[in-house]
Amino acid sequence: MTILVPIADGPLREQVLDVATEMSRRYDRPLYVVHLVGNASADGDARAVRSAVDDDLSESDVEYDVAIEHLSHSGARSGTRVAREILDLAADVGVDHIVMGHTEKGFVEGVTQGSAASAVVDDATVPVTIVPEAMV
Predict the structure, then answer these.
(1) Model confidence at 39, in pLDDT bands (50, 70, 90)?
(2) Helix axes 13-27, 44-58, angle to 10 degrees
(3) pLDDT band at 91 (very low <50, low <70, confident <90, very high)
(4) Domains in the chain, please, with CATH?
(5) What kind and span of H or E run contains 30?
């Protein structure tokens, strides 16, 4: 089985990868790191993130794969939509754990967009480890 690590380009990425890498070592599981993008085709920024992640993980002793996935998260409650797509990906890949970051939102943003991390935790059929923004 595999540990799914959905990431975005942001300050939590390194901390999420550190936690996932340690779990990979500890439980002898490969990582499937997915950079989540809103565009149907990967632009230069998305490819740069994938390359940076690949560079970081190539120095580790864990088995991994890095991919770019298009997630259509436009419209209201986008966090919930992102969560649904992460959970669908988890089912497709056959993961036994999910490691992802969480950035606290303000009240209005939380109500209008929802939280992908909270929705994943609520609906996941596998354990989920959340790396909070506070660890940054």
Answers:
(1) low
(2) 40
(3) very high
(4) 2-135 (3.40.50.620)
(5) none
| Strands lying side by side in the sheet with 31-37 | 64-70, 31-37, 2-7, 95-102, 128-132
Query: CA 27 to CA 103: how far, in whole Å?
Result: 26
82 phi and psi angles, rounded to 5 deg: -60, -45
Spatial neighbors of 76 by CB under 8 A, at least 6 apart, are: 112, 113
Bridge partner list, 103: none
Tell me the two tokens of residue 19: 């936690």
SS3 content of the chain, % helix, strand, coil (to 5): 45, 25, 30
Lowest mean pLDDT among 17-26, 47-56, 81-90, 107-116: 107-116
Q: In terms of C-beta density within 10 A (0-12 exposed, 13-18 middle, 19 or more buried), how is residue 62 classed?
A: middle
Rounded Cα distance between 79 and 27, Å, is: 29
The model carries a pTM of 0.82
